[in-house]
Structure prediction request, 327 residues.
Amino acid sequence: MEGGSMNDTRRRQFLHAAGVLFVAPSVALAQPVKHPYRIGLIGDGSSRPIEQSLNDLGYVEGRDFVLEIARPVGRSDRFDAIASELVRRKVDVIVAGTPNAVLSAKRATATIPIVMMHTPDPVQLGLVASLARPGGNITGVTTLSDAPSIKQLELLKEAVARVSRVAILWNRGNPWHPATVRALRSSGESLRLGLHELDVHRPEEFDAAFRAMATERTDAVLVLADPLTFFHRERLADLAIAHRLPMMGSLRAYAEAGCLLSYWADAADVYRRAASYVDRILKGADPGTLPVEQPTKFEFVANLKTARILGITIAPSVLLRVDRVIE
Prediction:
């Protein structure tokens, strides 16, 4: 998919047809820049964490780098188009925040370095040869296993005493979800929890999913990390509150949106690590020789405002382990 050219008019037509939202690079106007690095960023989250992490390493936006931000707006089917467009824009490195984003970037280029974040076992997904020596153009940070999702289920049960049946919101189109759901089934059995699995692909399916939860008499919801659920996290949190269901999310942003709890690798730490990879690659390092890292910091967040709305008292043993409380 590399190479080729597209004039400005055709590129705009292409992006409009693909339904892709691109944010033009931000360049400081105070002084002209000669050759700032072009860093492609695929994801629906804020670009500020990667900007700040690069700033901390001595890079100044506009002078040393510009960001080409590609937002899939919650649609996994757009990743191939936006990855290909970043390649056409001749970025120097691509930072991909989800498994589908990394897979699409891999399909789009075998030469432009790719730094992954929040990606499960990259060996199993065929992204790298090994964690110690990736061997290609991809490296970065991996969650490696389904352990964080299992921990989410354990914390949810411990936090809310009445929970006995949990709905799992997942997306079959996400490459790591099927294996995670299988692991959660086993964990649910050991925790003596009934699980109600709901495969959702589009936001139009959310209302029906929550109606099904009511029919199945579920007590709580675990929403697996995914571009779809992340982009629509506020709507999901509102639905959970409307149905009087405590919801567990992954990144802190889920709890900030109104989920009762969230637990995942500390996003700020992951961005710092990603920026470190970008730094080394821009200085000439071969991504194929940079070992893939695992997160060492995790963040557990509780939203007490949501707890009050739901009339829930979170178990004191759980609150003692919370890293951040939202009042």
